[in-house]
């Protein structure tokens, strides 16, 4: 069964709650949002034609670029896009929980200015090589 938005949001919260304490403490100001798809203007800005191609997105200024003197109009946010994630889940061997966790870790990693390789290492540390 495919989870609705509310259930999907609970899955994302569970994935976040399972992150290492230090990681959660440093990302406590990041809001997690769940939507079926990215907004059309977001897809256009990213030059993405197929809305199923975007599983998640970090929106904000990463901590390596922030200054105490900067004023930010919006909080940092991570978006998880339910329908693209569900379609991705149907095409591979990973569980839905594993995919949600992976996308969440990846997008929060952008909050810290991490590279993709850094994020894979973090995920391995948090969940083990097979997680």
From TrEMBL:
<protein>
    <submittedName>
        <fullName>Putative Zn-dependent protease with MMP-like domain</fullName>
    </submittedName>
</protein>
<dbReference type="InterPro" id="IPR038555">
    <property type="entry name" value="Zincin_1_sf"/>
</dbReference>
<dbReference type="InterPro" id="IPR010428">
    <property type="entry name" value="Zincin_1"/>
</dbReference>
<keyword id="KW-0645">Protease</keyword>
<dbReference type="GO" id="GO:0006508">
    <property type="term" value="P:proteolysis"/>
</dbReference>
<dbReference type="GO" id="GO:0008233">
    <property type="term" value="F:peptidase activity"/>
</dbReference>
<keyword id="KW-0378">Hydrolase</keyword>
<dbReference type="Pfam" id="PF06262">
    <property type="entry name" value="Zincin_1"/>
</dbReference>
